[in-house]
């Protein structure tokens, strides 16, 4: 759907983060990781930073390794502020947000012995003038299902660059962590019906419902959980 670009909405200046990847995103299809890679992927913390001080706003999202030993949160934030010429006042605010999310993190757990357990996950990402939406069925008990290789393959298949890949991975991982926290305390979570369970991984029976969609986006109309990339939101697998 082609649209005419809407006039920009006045906002505080947003500084875009361009942190180097921690796990390289390749344009080639990646097979599901096995063995030691499982521990690595389960070690990633989805982090969302959003600080506005004065007339400057800084937004970023990325993955932080829970077992990171070569770089402290303070060192990372100091480097981030230096790289983007942020005022010194941003240092403590960004560090507080990063530390709070690290401390609150609960690693995602697989329960393969319990059998298949499908959840519907949604994608809603606005970036670089495009709007990507998708809906996938995810077996949360399959240890071979990981957001990073799935996102890499999806972005490659759709002809999207690596920034979309990490944005997809971040949004999926955030939902999976939330599901894991809820499913042990809420037995009434809504699950797809048996008729919707796919014969192929991730896609339901109704291809019209379970398929990615890309549109040229002229206006920003956020939905719950959506991610906007063209105004400063970024997803980086960072050092």
UniProtKB/TrEMBL annotation:
**What GO cellular-component annotations does this UniProt entry give?**
nuclear chromosome
One short Pfam name that applies is SNF5
Q: Which GO terms describe its biological process?
A: chromatin remodeling
Q: Which domain of life is it from?
A: Eukaryota
InterPro entries associated with the record: SNF5 (IPR006939)
Q: What is this protein called?
A: SNF5/SMARCB1/INI1
């Amino acid at each position: 759907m082609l649209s005419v670009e809407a006039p920009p909405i006045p906002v505080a200046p947003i500084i875009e983060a361009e942190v180097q990847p921690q796990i390289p995103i390749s344009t080639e299809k990646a097979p599901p990781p096995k063995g030691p890679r499982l521990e690595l992927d389960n070690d990633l913390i989805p982090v969302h930073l959003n600080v506005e001080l004065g007339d400057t706003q800084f937004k970023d999202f990325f993955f932080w390794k829970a077992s990171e030993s070569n770089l402290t949160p303070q060192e990372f934030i100091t480097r981030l502020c230096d790289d983007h010429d942020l005022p010194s006042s941003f240092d403590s605010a960004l560090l507080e947000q990063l530390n709070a999310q690290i401390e609150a993190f609960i690693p995602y757990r697989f329960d393969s012995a319990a059998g298949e357990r499908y959840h519907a996950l949604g994608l809603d990402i606005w970036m670089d003038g495009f709007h990507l939406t998708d809906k996938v069925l995810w077996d949360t008990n399959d240890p071979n299902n990981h957001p990073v290789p799935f996102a890499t393959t999806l972005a490659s298949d759709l002809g999207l660059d690596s920034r979309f890949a990490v944005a997809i991975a971040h949004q999926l991982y955030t939902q999976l962590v939330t599901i894991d926290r809820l499913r042990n305390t809420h037995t009434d979570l809504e699950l797809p019906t048996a008729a919707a369970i796919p014969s192929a991984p991730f896609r339901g029976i109704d291809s019209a419902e379970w398929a990615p969609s890309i549109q040229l986006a002229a206006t920003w109309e956020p939905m719950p959980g959506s991610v906007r990339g063209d105004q400063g939101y970024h997803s980086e697998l960072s050092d």
